């Protein structure tokens, strides 16, 4: 028997590719755009429903995006029942360069892309808020 771990080798290959392209495996690819009076964050979350996505803003400038979904299928073939389960989760935290107005934030999800608009403020707010996804 060989001591090789083919799955481990595949995971290492994905880690190397992710490092080369600047995106770690299992994280959400994210763009942050400074539009002058606000920041707009675009996050790629294909395959999720808007109900699967959670967006949190803490301390007026730390945005956390997380998504989780699970699937279960059951196939009956004669007297044997085959069940398959899949669970997928991902998250990304982005520290914004300036504080944003928590009460004015908005999020939308369309075509697998989450867009979060965060208007800037002049003074930081120490509270946190949950941003609903439409």
From TrEMBL:
<dbReference type="Pfam" id="PF00011">
    <property type="entry name" value="HSP20"/>
</dbReference>
<feature type="region of interest" description="Disordered">
    <location>
        <begin position="67"/>
        <end position="106"/>
    </location>
</feature>
<dbReference type="InterPro" id="IPR008978">
    <property type="entry name" value="HSP20-like_chaperone"/>
</dbReference>
<comment type="similarity">
    <text>Belongs to the small heat shock protein (HSP20) family.</text>
</comment>
<feature type="domain" description="SHSP">
    <location>
        <begin position="21"/>
        <end position="134"/>
    </location>
</feature>
<dbReference type="InterPro" id="IPR002068">
    <property type="entry name" value="A-crystallin/Hsp20_dom"/>
</dbReference>
<dbReference type="InterPro" id="IPR031107">
    <property type="entry name" value="Small_HSP"/>
</dbReference>
<protein>
    <submittedName>
        <fullName>Hsp20/alpha crystallin family protein</fullName>
    </submittedName>
</protein>
């Amino acid at each position: 028997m060989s001591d090789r771990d083919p799955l481990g080798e595949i995971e290492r290959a994905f880690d190397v590719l992710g490092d080369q392209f600047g995106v770690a495996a299992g994280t959400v690819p994210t763009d942050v755009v400074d539009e002058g009076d606000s920041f707009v964050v675009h996050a790629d979350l294909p395959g999720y429903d808007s109900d699967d996505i959670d967006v949190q803003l803490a301390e007026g400038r730390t945005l956390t995006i997380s998504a989780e979904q699970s699937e279960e299928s059951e196939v009956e073939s004669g007297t044997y029942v085959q069940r398959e389960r899949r669970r997928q989760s991902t998250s990304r935290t982005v520290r914004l360069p300036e504080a944003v107005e928590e009460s004015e934030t908005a999020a939308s999800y369309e075509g697998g892309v989450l867009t979060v608009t965060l208007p800037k403020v002049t003074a930081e707010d120490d509270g946190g808020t949950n941003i609903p996804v439409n």
